Amino acid sequence: MSPPTNDVTNGVVAPPSTLAPRVPPTTNPTLTTINPPSHKRTPKDFIFGKVIGEGSFSTVYIAKDIHTSKEYAIKVCEKRHILKEKKSEYVKLEKDVLNMLADAKHSFVRLFCTFQDSERLYFVLSYAKNGELLPYINKVGSFDIECTKFYSAEILRGLEYLHGLGIIHRDLKPENILLDEKMHVLITDFGSAKILDNRKTTTTTTTTTTTTSDGDPDAQQQQYRRERRGSFVGTAQYVSPELLTDKTASRASDLWALGCIVYQMVAGLPPFRSRSEYMIFQKILKLEYEIPDGFDELAKSLVSQLLVLEPTQRLGALDAHGDGYPSIRAHPFFEGVNFETLHEQTPPPIYPYLPGTSEHEELRSQYRVPDNLEPGLDDKQLTRLLGLGIGEDTDDDDDITTTNTTSVERSAVNKPVNKTTATAVKPIRRINNNIDGGAKIADLTPEQIRMRLEKQRATNQWDTFVEGNLILKQGFVNKRKGLFTRRRMLLLTTGPHLYYIDPFNMVLKGEIPWSPELRVEPKNFKIFFVHTPNRTYYLEDPEGFALEWCRAIEEMRVHCYGLQETTAA
Ligand code: ATP
Fold first, then answer.
1. Where does the record place Low complexity bias (predicted)?
2. Whose CA is nearest to atom 17 of ligand 1?
3. 50 shares its domain with 136
4. For residues 187 and 107, is the Cβ–Cβ distance under 8 A?
5. pLDDT band at residue 278 under the 50/70/90 scheme
6. pLDDT of residue 38
């Protein structure tokens, strides 16, 4: 990240005076609620609960004010670490922006007060109970249009306010959009923001200028590596082209990021993806992204008007500053949205949903996870919050093909199936991909398992991926995420495990994580959903054995967890 050029002071962490509550408690209603008069907060005023997130130089805790019992998110930054990492500008900037946003009634994480002790700085923030937007997109694969509309509108309204104050976010992305207890948007992370000089509409980052390397890709890449450090604000996938070329950012840079986020909500993945940052940047500079089959037409129109290389040509870029973005609001995608009352509206629920192809209807899930995401803050939750996703999907890389089923396949796949029919009708073909006639694991003796394992080792090419477990069922499936599909070999094994392998590169891509909560939901002979607490997996068996898969997985669940048979359907 480049050091900000103005607006903030250089040097060490903010002196104590600047870390005091923003305004005297008597004049600030917010601080009056948190702060009994003339009482400066210290860590002793809070009961620190669990860690809810970690940044590069901060740890965020949930904490309860002992005077009011109110919950806050307290971001704790080690002074020593900030100095060592030369992040004092970043911290100061974040605090300045949060202070500027103190009067915003909604849309932003709110800073209630700051204090410090000899080792740490404390930021007392509103607690976004439902975490980040990103895991919600990942959980359901894609948002339906109603959800996309609502969340795009809330983000747009936040940007209108932010830009009205002359602040560019510069790192807008689904990880920086938090959700409050009612699932409304709270934009956060202003450490990369830019406070514009009122006379200017753009800002230049203080970095070296890129010189070309005569088209030699290796030289360009090397040069890129040299310049990457300190030359780039934001996150690769959402960064605007002008930031890469001229190192300038304007309000329109955030509109580019908005375009990327709208795309991601509809399609399930951001528009510019690759294995390396360098390749992502090349795609951004060439405006190289695809609109997959089934992408909503109005959303496509909006996205294509935001993802425009020339910043001034982006929808909204020429709207008068300070008046919001009437031209974006007027886009037909937002038809019917009442922007003024968004924060009072109940957000549409985020349900598992499989977008259809352009010709066919979507498949909606009948299944409802008890709460939006798993409650509690155990290790699994932290893993989710920290975006580690260990043991889960690693399939978000570049080896993605858009849905390419033939029209014949599609009509079979998408034929509406009512769930009674789906479960009642017997499969047309016999199971051909169960191992050894599909014996139930419960029926196998240890000796039989040993013999089968021996045979598997000698004859089954997928054996190397299953860590010594016995494969009970295997088969090619199309694993869908949003509007994208990948072909995978799915392996149900003892353990239990559900491994999936990239059959072209013969690489283990991940596992569907098992737990007693795992549920299968057949949608028709080809499509079935596997619901886990943190994600719904959309799987298509082109051979038409979806019901067999569901039965085998459910049997395994009952065998391992001793629970009653209940599929989601
Ligand atoms: P970096 O500092 O590296 O850019 P970051 O901005 O994500 O990372 P933090 O602001 O320290 O770092 O936040 C760390 C994590 O804590 C976030 O990813 C978020 O999930 C969680 N978090 C931050 N603020 C809040 C909040 N007000 N309510 C709930 N969770 C929060």
1. 28-37, 202-212
2. 53
3. no
4. yes
5. very high
6. 52
What's the pTM value of the predicted model, to 2 decimals? 0.76
Identify the domain containing residue 511 by its residue range.
446-561
Q: Which residue has the higher pLDDT, 227 or 527?
A: 527
**193 close to ligand 1 (CB < 6 Angstrom):** no
Instruction: Give percent of the chain above pLDDT 70.
Output: 71
Quick check: CB of 171 below 6 Å from ligand 1?
no
Catalytic center residues: 171
Any known ligand binding at 75?
Answer: yes
Q: Which of 126, 145, 161 is the last residue of a domain?
A: 126
CATH of the domain at 499: 2.30.29.30
In this structure, is residue 22 part of a structural domain?
no
**What is the C-alpha separation between 174 and 147, in angstroms, rounded?**
14
Q: Are 384 and 135 in contact (CB under 8 A)?
A: yes
Residues 260 and 274 in one domain: yes
Distance CA 106, CA 110 (A): 9
| Cβ atoms of residues 522 and 569 within 8 Å | yes
Task: Report yes or no on 425 lying in a domain.
Answer: no
Residue having the nearest C-alpha atom to atom 19 of ligand 1: 53
- For residue 67 the two structure tokens come to 């005077």
- What pLDDT shows up at residue 569? 44
